[in-house]
Amino acid sequence: MKHTRGMTLLEMMTALAVVSVLIGLSVVAMQGRIGGQKENTATRELWSSALRARQLAISTTQPVRFVVENNVTLLDGRQHTVARWERLKCGNDLNTPDDWGMDQCPSPACLNKTCRTAPACCSETGPDIVIPPTMNATNINNLCFLPGSGRPVFNKMDCLQGQLGNPATIAAAAPTDSSIQFRFTSNRAKSVLMVEPLTGLSSVMDCDSLAATTSDATKKDARLAAACAVP
Questions:
Q1: Cβ atoms 130, 80 nearer than 8 A
Q2: Is 202 part of a structural domain of the chain?
Q3: pTM of whole model > 0.90?
Q4: Per-residue pLDDT for 27 more than 70?
């Protein structure tokens, strides 16, 4: 009669160790994929929101500004870094929607305030875009699209209040190709949100794309490559 040999304790421990390592590697790989998807989603949503913000600034004749805020508690009960656009009210009286003036747009009462802390300053706000922990999107903070024209100004929380009639000031405040960069602590290359200074139209490009890295001049996007080269 043939006897079946069982596993020894050492063999069982070795097998368990191998299985544990394989499970660990699978979890790490899955977390990496999920993290990459969150980075992709946030990047696309920021670009889409920039297009929407420009459109609203033109159609409503109100400035629309981006803000990035830390430690915001959302519906999941957790704190996140979030970005969103805010359509700012104009005029000295926040309760009078038609009280519009070039020197009071946005309202002087709302300078240096976000609409999360001062809701009365906004006619409308965009959805909160959760910025994953591996992503830095602070460069888009205080990007503002001017009322009526949709022209962009950069690092101007006041959206050039009182200076909307000064073309030279507006041109000088426009973002450059490399102004708005999204950086990642993962293995992902940074992305650049390129905002046209005259029209406010934007596009988002990855710095590891063929257009940025190729040596073929016929396929290379010189503006993107130059923007990606800026630290």
A1: yes
A2: no
A3: no
A4: no
